[in-house]
DNA sequence: GTCTATACGTAGATAGAC
DNA sequence: GTCTATCTACGTATAGAC
């Protein structure tokens, strides 16, 4: 198979497995068996596991970038953008949990470069939420920034939490939680 | 060292390491080196890693039990109980993240018995929050149960999220998030 | 209870043929 | 690019001495 396709394929699978089992738990053996190639072949594309891990974080970053650029061009209301964000991020998680959450949970086991990447992803996600929420905020400007930031943390925590509970308890609590969030946003 | 002390010591350390690195990432080698004994000695107390994992989940359960019994006896307001819950759970997490969150993230890698225990812990935690929040809810009874449940998921997600962000970004966002939660509870 | 020693599998990684 | 073969290290686990 030509170079870029295989590389992309490996990153896609690694991303999926990170959502399912986490960075620490995935192995070149897992990847190679699921792709029908040998471990050595994966090592050709990503010499070290850290290299693959970094590629996955960059893939996650691209997803956030593409969402940000699509949302800034549109003329939706805050509520619509927030809904859009939620739907898209949930879809990006497939059957697993949020990959950023997964990497945060493994944080202390990650190589230094990946720690840095996970920090950046976390901040990027917050920045996107803050961008969305700032528009809808029409209170005193001094308090606004701090409140919007708090709200961004809350929204992200709730989305990630809903995915965790869905997997653990087999119950989709997202609609309920979104109702809570809408009440907060509308204040 | 006598039997029960050592056993307790091992569970305590395992719990701490689960908060820091997760169940998958901890090893008998870690544990033995930090305790100054051999791996074989740990295996004497917990023959298989799963046995130790289950013991840790039971330890987490005891913490929840003890909180529940302390809170049901007291005559605090909903806000006070919620604050109390938060402070105590945050303290229980030490320098790491919530151990239940950590186990949820590793869910698909856990042995079956541990999966079951993590489910029970998740439900127990929800039950406690629902107990606390139901008292303060004075709306239409039909809607109350569903709303309180949604609020419970939200509160738990926010506490766990705050711990994740604290570790990843080195910033304590808990006070900000708690303000958001208080706004929700007071509606 | 704790030790030494060891077995056995797996994980990350490399060398060299094709 | 992918393979076979191999290496070293580590993880879980057990046997048997003290």
UniProtKB/TrEMBL annotation, chains A, B:
It comes from the Bacteria. The keyword Cell membrane does not apply. Residues 27-46 bind DNA. Pfam families: TetR_N (PF00440). InterPro entries: Homeodomain-like_sf (IPR009057), HTH_TetR (IPR001647), Tet_transcr_reg_TetR-rel_C_sf (IPR036271). Residues 4-64 form the HTH tetR-type domain. One of its GO terms (molecular function) is DNA binding. Keywords: DNA-binding, Transcription, Transcription regulation. This is TetR/AcrR family transcriptional regulator. The lineage of its organism: Bacteria, Bacillati, Bacillota, Bacilli, Bacillales.
